[in-house]
């Protein structure tokens, strides 16, 4: 039984968290009306980019198979759980049904099926027990299991030509769908494949100092590491901050979902590295901790993902350790809220300054909907109102 961090907040922190709840409700109620049944992604000048029409093709993405499309229904399920407002439930169910097109088309799906169906279909099943939602979640889990290389023991990422050996640190979140499927069915294939993948990344993507590779390129036959491409960070050997966030949250969730202490220890090691870096920048994250000093690029996405990870760690460690992780989670969220949140209900996009890729100016320091998801999840956990989607 893990500890609920909401009970450990100071009175002032609890008041701050509670002050955000009506603001979250006002923001997302207004956005539901504006997005009008579509799935949003990036807000430009306070207006979300959404699907253009019923075919599911997006302005700037890969249509209905775009990897972030599960986070909007995820926000809706979190807000429904916290408020009981049926509008959130209806919106989440509609978005989940839209994602059936991705199953039908298949092309474009890859390791991110966990991101797509865990916060949509699996969340629905956990809250309502709906069998159709369970089937969608299991479909996603089977697709993810099909990407597992049983010789080299990793889940292949993406579908790029020549990338058969690639596995990225982001997959530490997607692998939680395998653990859910294993618990739900009792089928050890899911659980054991998930653990082997976690062990492979723990031993090869996480460096001794707690920093992480984004991409690890394995020989698909021997499992030997061939290269560590820079991916969305500055370069090979650098330290993409959101990758650190995926590792912190992913290994913390893996520890929760498997009971394996080695995953919690890994999450803590990466967390200590991340905290040491943002301590130098007022609890705000650079896009890459090993990039040149100029220009300065920020990533609020890394911050809110890490906040979720630190909260999860805090819930799993003994009392005398807890304050480090919880205090830093609150500090990070307060910094994001004070400087990088747009609370105006008439404008789309809550968390600003989110960055997709260091070298891509099109999605650098912009509001991204999945940044909003992790901010909501973290705040609701602190309020004791979040559901455990993962």
Task: Describe the structure using short key phrases.
mainly alpha; three-stranded antiparallel beta sheet; single chain; globular; two-stranded antiparallel ribbon; 390 residues; Glycosyltransferase; 14 helices
Describe this structure in words.
The strands form 3 sheets. The chain has a 3-stranded antiparallel sheet with strand order 5-6-7, with no helix packed on it. It has a two-stranded antiparallel sheet with strand order 1-2. A two-stranded antiparallel sheet has the order 3-4. It is mainly alpha-helical. The chain has a single domain, classed as Alpha/alpha barrel (Glycosyltransferase), CATH 1.50.10.10. It is 54% helix and 5% strand. The chain has 14 helices and 7 strands. The model is unreliable at 52-61 (pLDDT under 50). The longest helix is centred in the first third of the chain and has 25 residues, at 11-35. One of its GO terms (biological process) is polysaccharide catabolic process. GO terms for molecular function: chondroitin hydrolase activity. InterPro entries: 6-hairpin_glycosidase_sf, 6hp_glycosidase-like_sf, UG_Glycosaminoglycan_Hydrolase. Keywords: Hydrolase.
């Amino acid at each position: 039984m893990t500890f609920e961090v909401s009970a450990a907040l100071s009175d002032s922190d609890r008041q701050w968290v509670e002050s955000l709840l009506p603001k979250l409700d006002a923001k997302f109620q207004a956005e539901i009306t504006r997005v009008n049944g579509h799935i949003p992604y990036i807000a430009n000048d306070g207006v979300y980019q959404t699907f253009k029409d019923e075919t599911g093709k997006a302005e700037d993405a890969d249509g209905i198979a775009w990897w972030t499309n599960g986070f909007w229904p995820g926000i809706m399920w979190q807000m429904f759980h916290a408020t009981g407002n049926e509008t959130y439930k209806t919106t989440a169910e509609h978005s989940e049904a839209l994602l059936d097109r991705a199953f039908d088309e298949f092309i474009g799906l890859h390791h991110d099926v966990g991101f797509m169906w865990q916060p949509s279909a699996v969340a629905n099943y956990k809250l309502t027990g709906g069998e159709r939602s369970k089937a969608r979640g299991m479909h996603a889990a089977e697709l993810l299991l099909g990407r597992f290389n049983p010789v080299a023991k990793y889940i292949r990422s993406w579908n790029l030509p020549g990338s058969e050996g690639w596995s990225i640190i982001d997959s530490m979140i997607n692998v939680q769908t395998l653990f859910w499927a294993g618990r739900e069915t009792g089928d050890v294939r899911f659980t054991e494949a998930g653990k082997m993948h976690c062990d492979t990344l723990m031993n090869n993507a996480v460096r001794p100092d707690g920093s992480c590779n984004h991409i690890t390129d394995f020989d698909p036959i021997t499992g030997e590491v061939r290269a560590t491409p820079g991916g969305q960070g500055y370069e090979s050997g650098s330290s993409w901050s959101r990758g650190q966030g995926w590792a912190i949250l992913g290994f913390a969730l893996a520890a929760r979902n498997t009971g394996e202490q080695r995953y919690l220890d890994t999450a803590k090691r990466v967390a200590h590295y991340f905290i040491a870096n943002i301590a130098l920048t007022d609890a705000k994250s650079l896009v890459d901790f090993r990039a040149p000093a100029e220009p300065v690029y920020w990533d609020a996405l890394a911050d809110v993902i890490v906040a979720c990870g630190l909260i999860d760690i805090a819930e799993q460690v003994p009392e005398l350790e807890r304050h480090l992780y919880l205090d830093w989670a609150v500090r990070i969220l307060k910094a994001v809220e004070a400087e990088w949140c747009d609370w105006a209900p008439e404008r789309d996009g809550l968390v600003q300054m989110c960055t997709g890729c260091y070298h891509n100016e099109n999605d650098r320091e912009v509001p991204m909907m999945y940044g909003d998801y992790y901010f909501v999840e973290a705040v609701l956990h602190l309020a004791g109102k979040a559901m455990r989607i993962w």
